[in-house]
Write a structure and sequence with these properties.
It holds the Pfam family Pribosyltran. This protein is an alpha/beta fold. The chain is 24% helix and 29% strand. It has a domain of 123 residues: Rossmann fold (3-Layer(aba) Sandwich), CATH 3.40.50. The longest helix has 19 residues. The radius of gyration is 17 Å and the shape is globular.
Amino acid sequence: MPKRLILDSRLLDITITRLCQQLIENHDTFEQSVILGLQPKGVFLAKHIQSKLQELTGKNVPTGYLDTTFYRDDFRRRETPLLANTTHVPFIIENKKVILIDDVLFTGRSIRAALDAMIAFGRPHKVELLVLIDRKYSRDLPIEPHYVGQHVNTILSQRVLVEWTEKGATENAIWLVDTQDTTG
């Protein structure tokens, strides 16, 4: 599987800092804002965003993790059952500005499921979507992010691989991987 580097560790750090600066512009004191990272992969980005925001502002933005397994529209259509992840939302989101975070936006189905799952914790005042990678031209649903690290043109035979040192990678990096077998 050929791999092409999209963002190395240095550029990824710059991108996360830029995304945090945009959040600071729009959320100011973060008094009414919370972060929800989508399980499983958005959690790592949510932790990086929370940490960088604390470094830049001195504020600890409440952060939780949301599992959408049972809210997915393909939950019962899979041959092998999906395994649920932990949902940890230690705050009420009623009337809060929710910053929903995921690593890669592809079809939009995970985000749709997250919107449904969020309602169990209250009705937010506003929901904004932050993603590291927006896979352009692949959306099945009319969902667009408010904050984007990078737009990437992809085809269906490719996938975006986000590697974190917290998950055992040697360095944080984002790759575009061709999943087609080119050996014939």
